[in-house]
């Protein structure tokens, strides 16, 4: 059995973002039921994006996203800072900083405009285990390991 296609994942992420933006904000983001689908679909989206990226590797798997902060800069956009939880082939579980700026697009063939950044290039991958404290976003990341930016709609 196969999972959803990448376009279905991206559409589901756009739908989750739309639902989140229409919902009443919850000041306790760890308890925000409307944010959970955004994190879940973003994790699934990143699983696909990272799988095709040099430096990630075939035996690594995205597990979850733990939100730290979320902002609504516009009625159609959100900015999320959090931690990406992932596993490697040695059954280790790790946390990496994550920044996502997502904007809902009016173009049906390209439902999202985005900039998504993962991993601190200064620290490297797999340096903070899942159970250890992490200093992001209190200490910002200057250089990201992976950055995904939506292609310009005009390209």
SSE topology:
Blueprint: H1 6-22, H2 35-51, E1 61-74, E2 77-87, E3 93-107, E4 110-120, E5 144-149
Antiparallel strand pairs: 1-2, 2-3, 3-4, 4-5
Sum this structure up briefly:
This protein is of the alpha+beta class. The protein has helices at residues 6-22, 35-51; strands spanning 61-74, 77-87, 93-107, 110-120, 144-149. The chain has one domain (6-149).
How would you explain this protein's 3D organization?
The protein has 155 residues and is an alpha+beta fold. The chain has one domain. The chain is built from two helices and five strands, in the order H-H-E-E-E-E-E. It has helices spanning 6-22, 35-51, and strands at 61-74, 77-87, 93-107, 110-120, 144-149. It has a five-stranded antiparallel β-sheet with strand order 1-2-3-4-5. The chain is globular. The model has no long low-confidence stretch (mean pLDDT 91).
Largest sheet: 5 strands, antiparallel
What is the strand content? 35-45%
Strand order of the largest sheet: 1-2-3-4-5
Measured on Cα atoms, how large is the radius of gyration?
Answer: 15 Å
Helix content: 10-25%
Question: What is the overall shape?
Answer: globular
**Average pLDDT:** 91
Order of helices and strands: HHEEEEE
Number of strands: 5
Count of individual helical segments: 2
In terms of per-residue confidence, which ranges show pLDDT below 50 for 5 or more consecutive residues? none
For the termini, the CA-CA separation is 35 Å
Decide which structural class fits the backbone.
alpha+beta
Count structural domains.
1
């Amino acid at each position: 059995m196969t999972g959803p296609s990448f376009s279905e994942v991206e559409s589901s992420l756009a739908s989750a973002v739309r639902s989140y933006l229409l919902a009443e904000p919850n000041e306790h983001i760890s308890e925000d039921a409307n944010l959970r689908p955004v994190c879940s679909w973003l994790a699934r989206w990143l699983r696909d994006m990272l799988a095709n990226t040099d430096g990630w590797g075939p035996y690594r798997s995205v597990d979850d996203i733990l939100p730290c902060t979320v902002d609504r800069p516009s009625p159609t956009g959100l900015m999320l800072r959090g931690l990406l939880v992932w596993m490697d082939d040695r059954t280790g579980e790790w946390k990496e900083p994550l920044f996502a700026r997502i904007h809902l697009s009016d173009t049906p063939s390209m439902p999202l405009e985005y900039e998504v950044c993962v991993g601190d290039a200064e620290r490297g991958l797999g340096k903070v285990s899942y159970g250890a404290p992490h200093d992001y976003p209190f200490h910002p990341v200057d250089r990201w390991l992976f950055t995904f930016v939506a292609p310009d709609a005009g390209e």
